# Entry
Amino acid sequence: MSEAVASRYAAALADAALAESNAERVRRDLAAFVAAFDESAELRNVLETPSVAPELKKKIVEALAKRMDLAKAVRNFVFLLVDHSRIEMLREIQQAFHQALNARLGIADAEVTSARELGAEERRELIATLERRTGKKIEARFREDASLLGGAVVRVGSIVYDGSVREQLTRLREQLETE
Amino acid sequence: MSLLLAAGPVFAQSSGSEADTTSGWVFRWINFGLLVALLVYAFGKAAPKFRKNSEEISRKIAEGARAREAAEQQRREVRTKIAGIETEVAAMREDAKRGAEAEAERIRALAKSEAEMVEKAARAEITAAERASRMELRTTAARLAVERAEQILREQLTASDESALFRTFVAELERSRN
# Structure
């Protein structure tokens, strides 16, 4: 339920950001505000407490937006969340916004796990291959997991490409068990 | 008549010297008369009782005859009823014997059927256990083989091997796109 609500707010913000042609700034500023929100317990306490008047909350957000030089779209969006008492969904909405904006910009998130750290050339080659394969711009995050033994695992959205030695050994074991 | 004969000795005892006189005959006749009267009186008193006894005896004889007739009738009826009873008993015995044989046969068939079912279940259980054992053995063998392969890979896989593996993965991604 909350996921659907977060998706609706995120889609609205993504459309607004694209309309103002400052999508990346909105993405960056929203992430900065969420970081501040997570960092400051006092800020969270004020914004999440129902007994605090919305006007006071908006004044605080306004002051913070000026100090952080946040995009107008981000400030107005936080105002909207304050008015609708949805500020507790801020983190969820930010994640949904990231995905919604990427979808609109033709960007796909890729999570690459390899047995060892990949070199720059290997990363470029993999990203280029994934972009050709998906037809989207790939934003990849890389991490290492030695238990893979060799090869790599790539997750793009809900699709997983598993080229690890671990996976091959698992398949081999299943084949031996069924023969 | 018997009373008169009983009075006879009165005359006989009075025979002798005085017996032939007139007064002697009178006394004799008086004695005789008294005796007859006494006898008639006694007989009159006893006659109803004799008659009653006689009737009682006759009644009992009649009753006995009737009872005998009833017993005879009952005996005839019993004989009629039990006529052929031996044949029936024999037939019943024969039926019972056949029934017992049929029951014994049914029990034998049931026991045989149950024995077959038990044997079938046991065979199925053995087959399942055999299958499970084979599967477990295969699983264990596969696990050991893969564990050994993993150990060898950990020991012998070089950086260039890993690079080759990565390049192969990227090439497969590229190939499967087309």
Remarks:
- The longest helix of chain A spans residues 2-19.
- The radius of gyration of chain A is 21 Å.
- The first strand of chain A starts at residue 107 and ends at 114.
